[in-house]
Write a structure and sequence with these properties.
Layout: H1 3-23, H2 31-40, H3 46-57, H4 64-84, E1 94-95, E2 98-99, H5 101-105, H6 107-125, H7 137-168, H8 175-185, H9 187-200, H10 208-234, H11 237-240, H12 246-249, H13 255-259, H14 261-278, H15 287-298
Antiparallel strand pairs: 1-2
Helix pairs in contact: 1-2, 1-3, 1-4, 1-15, 2-6, 3-4, 3-9, 3-15, 4-6, 4-7, 4-9, 7-8, 7-9, 9-10, 10-14, 10-15, 14-15
Length: 301
């Protein structure tokens, strides 16, 4: 299956699960509307796709633990976008081609919607939703505990990356510092998605295949961010669904600024190749992850 087909299938699957979770959240208005706006109105759903593909890469069909992990990591991602768009952060008015959450519902409601999505992610991951597909109650409990630890730690790392990113605005940083920002801000949730998918597939923390998947996720996360930086320069607002050129507006340090546009494009390719090399121990079972990685390298939005 091609990478775009993988992502399309993931979007269909996770959209249904996200809708189910939000339908049963029983939130008051306008919080309910703001949360649905933040979560259900589009998005590439890269992180859920990686959860599913990582579960399959270790030889297990997508199960309840993977479905919960996919929902949880996407809820964390959506909360981070809502907060990232706020006036106190990047002050963006457009996301996924629509007004951002705070533009539509006000800053206070948007802030609280992000807070709610964060707590809901951990509620889903520790719940019995989708339980009829559990392998066994004991297996599911162990998987859930391990996934919770991964998501909590990586969510914290994402926030660290956001702080480092804000601190870097308006000043030049070297490549090592830029990498540190994005290993955390972007890479942490990509790493979380891959690890939680592998854990859902039955891998234990000491399995060598998990080490390979962590290495894949690190390089894929960086490649994803480099490509994001490139697209901020080369793509249109219409294609991106968010304001093009926003990095320049905020005087952010980016890979094109640091390496030049051609250098950044080469860096993305090198990281992509390194990510693929890390998957060698998993053989053909990781072809889904390879297809997603190939699509992300050549994406235009």
């Amino acid at each position: 299956m091609t990478g775009d087909a993988q992502l399309a299938a993931a979007r269909t699957r996770v959209q249904a699960d996200l809708t189910h979770v939000l339908d049963h959240a029983h939130l008051p208005e306008p919080l309910q509307a703001a949360v649905r706006h933040a979560v259900l109105l589009g998005g590439k759903r890269v992180r859920p796709a990686l959860v599913y593909a990582a579960c399959e890469a270790v030889g297990h069909p997508v199960n309840a633990a993977a479905r919960r992990a996919a929902v949880a990591v996407e809820l964390i991602h959506c909360y981070s976008l809502v907060h990232d768009d706020l006036p106190c952060m990047d002050d963006d008015a457009l996301r996924r081609g629509l007004p951002t959450c705070h533009v539509r519902y006000g800053e206070a409601t948007a802030l609280l919607a992000g807070d709610l999505l964060q707590s809901l992610a951990f509620e889903v991951l520790s719940s019995a939703v989708f339980a009829p597909e559990c392998d066994s109650p004991v297996t599911d409990l162990v998987q859930s505990a391990r996934q919770l630890a991964v998501l909590a730690q990586r969510s914290g790392r994402m926030v660290v990356g956001q702080v480092l990113d804000l601190q870097a605005e308006g000043r030049a940083v070297d490549e090592a510092a830029l990498e540190q920002i994005h290993v955390n801000k972007t890479g942490a949730l990509i790493d979380a998605a891959i690890q939680m998918g592998a854990l859902a597939g039955g891998l234990t923390p000491d399995d060598a295949r998990l080490t390979a998947l962590v290495a894949f996720g690190r390089d894929l996360g960086l490649a994803f961010q480099v490509q994001d930086d490139v697209l901020d320069v080369t793509a249109t607002t219409e294609a991106l669904g968010k304001p093009a050129g926003s990095d320049q507006k905020l005087h952010k340090s980016t890979y094109p600024v640091l390496l030049g546009l051609a250098g950044a494009q080469t860096r993305a390719i090198d990281l992509h190749q390194s990510a693929l090399a890390a998957l060698t121990p998993l053989g053909v079972s990781a072809d889904g992850l390879r297809a997603i990685a190939a699509f992300l390298l050549t994406r235009q939005s």
